[in-house]
Write a structure and sequence with these properties.
The protein is mainly alpha-helical. The protein has one domain. Helices cover 80% and strands 0% of the residues. It is built from eleven helices and no strands. Helix 3 crosses helix 10 and helix 6 runs antiparallel to helix 11. The longest helix is centred in the N-terminal third of the chain and has 25 residues. The radius of gyration is 17 Å and the shape is globular. The two termini are 28 Å apart.
């Protein structure tokens, strides 16, 4: 019965991802916490879930030439070492056995949910600096990657709407579809490597991961096909309210 419920949960979140385009981290991890999973297991399992589900999207965008690979390379040069450093220097075996372990991850999740909520609210008002590729823009891209590496590893949130919004500010010459494709392509190695760190610590539930994938993969496809028929503004407002409420709850009250 639990396996079927988990499949249903994956389908619900997958459908929401397909309709709204918001990354799974901001939806799946809070969902798993509500089901009673410890924060490390919820985050670790969700990171691998996100990496696997984004592979198909990355390949699809690559085939359509929607991925700016030089930007992906600079992002990954910052994010992957940062993710590894978080596991080695912060989430080490000693810290995993401390009382602060779950609290730090839960608070990080709350902060990133609030940040994602604000990004969704202000997405059309974010400052955009029209510029060609320069050393400064690529340096800021590398810094952004390092920042995302820390945030995603600690919360599983940040590789979706949050990362895309920062890219839109740094590389406003790119079309919206190339921003999305580049963000998804970068999210694959980041979430997989961050998730493998949790897997090595024993904080990934393989059966939970399998059930979520079974439910979500077809649901993501369905949501992306019927999304244009649904009231997108209403759904986005509902999503903003949900993420904001969960963010405040996990960052303040838990």
């Amino acid at each position: 019965m639990d396996f079927l419920i988990q499949i249903l949960a994956g389908a619900v979140v997958g459908f929401a991802i397909g309709v709204t385009g918001v990354g799974g981290g901001s939806l799946m991890t809070p969902f798993l916490l509500l089901f009673g999973y410890p924060a490390p297991v919820a985050i670790g399992t969700d990171l691998l879930y996100a990496g696997i589900t984004k592979v198909g999207g990355a390949i699809s965008h690559h085939r359509r030439h929607h991925v700016a690979w030089p930007i992906v390379a600079y992002l990954a040069a910052g994010s992957i070492p940062a993710a590894i450093a978080v596991h080695v220097l912060v989430l080490d075996a000693q810290f995993q056995n401390s009382a602060l372990f779950e609290e730090v991850l839960t608070r990080s999740l709350g902060v990133m949910l609030i940040a994602t909520c604000l990004i969704l609210v202000l997405r059309n008002r974010l400052p955009r600096v029209p510029r060609a590729y320069t050393r400064q823009s690529f340096f800021m891209t590398w810094i952004t990657g390092a920042f995302l590496g820390v945030c995603v590893t600690l919360s599983s949130v940040g590789a979706g709407a949050f990362g895309a919004a920062i890219l839109l500010m740094l590389h406003s010459r790119l079309s919206a579809v190339r921003i999305v494709g580049t963000d998804i392509a970068h999210a694959v190695p980041l979430t997989l490597i961050a998730g493998l760190g949790y897997l090595g610590g024993g904080f990934v539930d393989p059966w939970l991961l399998l059930s979520l994938l079974i439910g979500s993969l077809p649901a993501i496809h369905l949501g992306s096909r019927v999304g244009h028929r649904l009231p997108e503004p209403t759904l986005r407002v509902a999503l903003i309210l949900i993420l904001g409420s969960l963010g405040i709850y996990y960052s303040v009250f838990v």
